[in-house]
Amino acid sequence: MTRVRVATGDDLAFLAPRERITAGELESVLRRSRVLIAEDPQRRAVVGWLRWGLFWDEVPFMNMLHVVEGWRRQGVGRLLVEAWESRCRGDGQTTVMTSTLSNESAQHFYRRMGYQDAGCLLLPDEALEILFTKTIR
Q: Assuming Cys at both sites, which of 39, 49, 51, 89 could form a disulfide with 64, CB separation 3.0 to 4.6 Å?
C-alpha cells in the first residue's frame, strides 16, 4: 500500500536530479515542508512526489506532480493530490491552484479531480498554459 509523507532533507539526493528547480531552491522548499512523497513501504521506494508554493504569496499552487514510470495509472497521483488538498484545508485554505500545458494529458486528470479551468497564459514558443482552481472547503 502506497503511503504519503512530508519530504525531508534525506530526500534531496533522490529529488534533486529529477526536479526542474535548482538544488538550492529545492532545499528551501523542503525546509518549508512543501513537498509530499509517495512511497511503497515494502520496497522502500519513492513512487511519486508533489511540490507546491504560493501563488500571489497566499494561494497554494501545485508546481510539480510526478509519478514514477511504472507506477502511473495506479492512483498514486490521486493519493498525492488528495493528501495535499487535505493538508491545505487543515491550514485553513479554501482554494488551491495548479496549471498544465494544453498539449499535456494532465489537464484531463485535474478536471477529473474537480479542478476547473480558470484562465490561461501564452508564453512565446510554448503551448498554452491552462490555469486551474479548486475550492476545498
A: 51
Q: How far apart are CA 45 and CA 38, in angstroms?
A: 9
**β-bridge partners, 96:** 134
Contact 92, 136 (CB under 8 A): no
Beta bridge partners, 4, equal 38
Cell (9 digits) for 73: 495509472
- How many whole angstroms separate alpha carbon 14 and alpha carbon 11? 5
pLDDT in tens, 109-122: 999 999 999 999 99
Q: How far is C-alpha 119 from the geometric centre of its chain's CA atoms? A: 19
Three cell numbers written together for 92: 485553513
> What does the pLDDT look like over 69-93, one tens digit per residue?
989 999 999 999 999 999 999 999 9
Beta bridge partners of 129: 101, 121
